[in-house]
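Please check this one:

***
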Amino acid sequence: MTTHAGRLRKTAPPVTVVRAKRSLGSRLTEGVSGGLLRVFLIVVGLFWLVPTFGLLVSSLRAPEDIGANGWWNVFSEPSSLTFDSYQKLLENSDITNSLVNTALITLPATILVVVIGSLAGYAFAWMEFPGRDWWFLAVVGLLVVPVQVALIPIAELFGKIGLFGSIFGVILFHVGFGLPFAVFLLRNFFAEIPRELLEAARLDGAGELRLFFRVVMPLGGPAIASLAIFQFLWVWNDMLVALVFTNADSQPITVALQTQVRQFGNNVDVLAPGAFISMVIPLVVFFAFQRQFVSGVMAGAVK
């Protein structure tokens, strides 16, 4: 019996595996999704950084060199790089004061939006109160209100109460227009927290504030970090609101640079380093919180 089975196995024809014929599109897709796509993205990223690198090099060149030739000539004359422009920038009181004003506007506007938005998002997600859903729909509706619509009415209001031209007035404007997005983002993120976890904390005697700070805030760290980065970048790079609501004593760096261009036009030795500093600070903030930002975006995508 064993011999007969062995003969059958020896005489059995080999099994032929028929593979489906792959189309040209599938082969191209597989090739693009591999190393070729990575190389392409690296090249695009390098080209994207060329203006930033050019601005950095221009900020380290003398004004006469900037007017004579392009920044790429520094590769043939690296000895022409100098920090004199940055020294002159630090001696320009308009630019240095505007940098301080930018920090005084951006940091409070970011912190207030994060704190108030977190509390409101938790309330809309897990607290019961009359008209909760209707109030949340009203907040979502505020997302579509353009900033330009509110400039003139709020400017008149600030003028009547004495806030026009002050840093505090600019902070209030940014907080008011940053809160709808903050509440919408954090409410949706907090709503995905397991109810059992919150109920267990309540059974242990935790109140709403303790529950918020001990349970919800640590779990919502990625979303809160993403919101903080968005708000910081929006306020730091803002020019329209600052151009309307600030004066010469409260203007941020964006308005100060625009004023330098309008008044003098050819003072590149101040504009180039000022523009680079104005750009590099948001980049430092983004890369410092890059991991939390990516985690928040991916968590929101999965949920």
User: Anything to note?
Assistant: The CA atoms of residues 121 and 148 lie 26 Å apart. The two ends are 61 Å apart (CA to CA). The chain is about 75% helix and 0% strand. The domain at 87-302 is CATH 1.10.3720.10 (MetI-like fold).
